[in-house]
Specification:
Length: 69
């Protein structure tokens, strides 16, 4: 007897997982659960203030400098 199982794509598996989480936890708690895996790095508040203090010319200059080493 030979059984052939259908293989799901990674996108299908992800969708099924998200759907299962949403059903069990609800949408808000599902988002919080997923976010708990990536807490980021650095000090967002300090960096945000630095970003907001820059003018457009400084931003373009920084991008150019990083691209050209």
């Amino acid at each position: 007897m030979c059984y052939k199982m259908a293989t799901k794509t990674i996108n299908e598996i992800r969708k099924m997982g998200i759907d299962a989480l949403a059903e069990a936890l609800g949408p808000l708690e599902t988002i919080r659960f997923i976010q708990s895996f990536d807490l980021g790095k650095g000090n967002y508040t300090k960096e945000r203030i630095q970003w907001l203090d820059q003018d457009m010319d400084a931003i373009v200059e920084e991008i150019t400098r990083k691209r050209h080493g």
